[in-house]
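Whether sequence alone determines local backbone shape is best considered at the level of individual chains. Part of our work consisted of pairing the sequence of a single chain with a tokenised description of its backbone. This step matters because it turns folding into a mapping between discrete strings. For completeness, the protein is quoted in full, as a sequence line and a line of structure tokens:

_____
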Amino acid sequence: MPGAEKNITILRGWAHDLLIATGFLTRLPVARLLKVDPEQPVRPLADVAWAFPAVGILTGGLAAVALMMAHSMGLHPLASALIALAVGVAATGALHEDGLADVADGFGGGVKKKDKLRIMRDSAVGAYGMLALVFSIGIRAAALSGMAGAGTAAMALISAACISRALIVGAMVGLPAARDDGLGSSAGRPETGTFLTALAVAAVTAFVLGGAGAWILLAAGGLATIAMMALAKRQIGGQTGDVLGATQQVSEIAILLAAAAAIG
């Protein structure tokens, strides 16, 4: 049936986009699952960005499972939270944490735009970057460990991972690339519809997991993202891959704090 074949083609396209997004945002071994047609151009990252929150569900789910397992072993909530965050970092290869550290070093240590961009590109981590990582892990772990129970913390972890990755797409749409090379430029600029799709995936996930309290999480993440976008615009005139990673971290922190205050 032509209709069924069309639906199968659409589903395959979605699965392919999800694999591309997963391969970029994580260290999970999905590359061999991709069947690349040499006669077809590789889809730009901006075109598959709608799947970023779905990747967040996957990485957040892995971290949530680790948290529940640690809790079942009788470990302290703080230890369980740290283990969960460690699993998330391992799954992503510290991609977003690296961006946060680079942005902290660049924005904190540079004076002019070119200096900030040069520092951000340097692989060495300075004092600002190290402190940003300490505070990021510490605040997230404290928020998770202070929630009413492990189940609540696990749901908040998945929601935060999903929403924060949807908000990355918003930053890609709302900010121009700060330089002509690098990820911020090569990834392309998603269409507004792509961001709305990503946001819809995140919103549905958050409401399924957290009920009406999802509004608070979405608002907290959105405000944090807007603040990061304004800061990046002022500091370097736009976004880079590091800025996108930092945006994910800052929005996830805000979401988990909001969950701890309003739900946990």
Summary: The mean pLDDT is 91. The two ends are 50 Å apart (CA to CA).
